[in-house]
Every structure is written in structure tokens, then in C-alpha cells.
Amino acid sequence: MAAGLTMARPEKKRSATFWQDTLRGYLFILPVVLGLLIWTFGPMIASAYFSLTDYRIISDPEFVGFQNYVDLFQDKAFFQSLSVTIRFGLMFVILSQIVGLAIAVLLTQKVRGLTVFRTFFYLPIIVPAAASAVLWKYLYNKDYGPINGVLNGFGLSSVNWLGSPESALFALVLMAVWSGAVTTIIYVAGLQHIPEELLDSAKIDGANAFQRFFFVTIPMLSPTIFFNVVTGVIGAFQFFVPAFIMTEGGPVKATYFYNYNLYEKAFKWLEMGYASAMAWALFSIIIVLTLMIFRSSPLWVYYEGETR
Description:
This protein has 13 helices and 4 strands. The chain is mainly alpha-helical. It has 2 domains: about 20-65, no CATH class; about 75-305, MetI-like (MetI-like fold), CATH 1.10.3720.10. It has a two-stranded antiparallel sheet. It has a two-stranded antiparallel sheet with strand order 3-4. A hairpin with a 7-residue loop joins β1 (about 55) and β2. α3 (about 75-105) packs across α8. The chain is globular. The two termini are about 50 Å apart.
């Protein structure tokens, strides 16, 4: 063959139904694409524009630039609601990981009736958030709630769970942890993928149950912990329904969450422009926190025994 000459590749012939198959594929994904464009990206673009305006629904939006964002840093309610949300997030993320992992460990034990227990712990997921909030409001009732009934049965005094600034936020944390069955399920899946050989080797080397858990199980489970922490932080900053139904931001704004503040600005005071700015500020906060967790992951997340 002469130098510099290459053999021409034979052209691939398209099947007779190529265009029909392509069109059919696009038609199948069209509902999802339209849903994202109309119900997700469309409202995001609109809110980004409204965040730069003074928009009160009953009047046309008036462009004000970044004034709404400047006003955020002069608004005491903004910082108060952000503080409540951050304190809730810290308690929720820590407790949900500890409780979720503990339950997951129990649900991976080889005992009789395990499927029944797994179904029982999965039930909080299928209960609607509004119905769950109404149920817990009854459970926390100071006068006739079952929780105080149990405390009284042990000779303890009743606790004004939702009516006291000292206990209201923690009461919502407990409720949120109870409804975090997804965290438990993910931990169960992570535990089931830990090689038994590693645990058996550690046992042969003389490691007891606690040593095997902290020096083998936890490092191997660190990618799962990483995922649950990220989703837990995002979920904590989106907390709204229980505070809206159970406490309405009280008492004394002890449960005045960021999203509840945003809801009031948008639908009670009709300050849609300011509320849109709050929404984008929340989006920015979540992005920053998520990136911080990602940046910290090489220090404690292990993949195949190696630091990320």
C-alpha cells in the first residue's frame, strides 16, 4: 500500500426503521423534557427575573436590580429564620444518621421475621407529610397526647412539646428523624454490600464487634454516609410542612424556618420579588454547603479502601 494512503471505512447503513425508532424515542422522553422545561426550569428562570424586581402580584413587576438581595442582609427575620434552620439541620443530620444506621444494623441481622420489621420501618415513607404532621401534633398534645401520657405513667410531669420555645424545635427534629426511613433503607443497602471476607478476617485477627464496626464497617460505609449527609443537609433546608401545620413558626418564632419565612413573604405579604430573592439565596446556601461537604470528603470517604 502506498505511503500516506488509508483504507476508506465502509459507511454504516442505517436500518429502514432508523427514523421511526428515533422519533419514537424522542416521543417517549418528550413528557419528561416538557415537564422539566415547564415546571422546573421555566419557574426557575422566572423567579430569577422576579428576584430583581419589586413584584407584589397585584401590580406589574418593577425592576430594582439587586436591591432585594441587599435588603436580605438588613432583615432580622431573614437571619432569625436562617438560624433556626441551621440549628434544626445540625440536630437532624446528626440524629438521623445515628438512628438510621443503628436501625439499619438491626435490620441486617439474620433473625426470624426480618421482612416484617423492614416493612414496619418503611411505613413512615408512605404516610403523607400533612397527615404525619397532624398525627404528631396529636401525639405532642400537652393535655391528652399519648407521649405525655407515657411520661405521666412513669411519674414524670407533662412537657409542653410544641408550646415551649425550649422544646418545640427539638420536637420537630424527632418527628423528622422518625420519617427518615429512606436514610435507613440506604444504609441497609450499603451494609449488605460490605464483603463478609473483611469482617471475617478482622474477627480472625482478634477484633471484637466494636472494633469490626468502627474500623471495618464504618470506613467501608463512608460513601453511603457521605450520600446520606448531603441529602440530609438539602432536606433540612427544605423543611416546611410540619412547621406550617404544627407550630406556624411559633412559639416566639422558635420554629420560624427559612421556608416558612419565605412562604409568608410570598403568600401572606405578597412580596413575590423579595421571596424570589430569598429562594435564590437559599439555593446558593445549599450549593455552598454541598460543595463544602464534597471538599471535605477526601478526608473521610473511602472507595475500595483508598481515600477519595
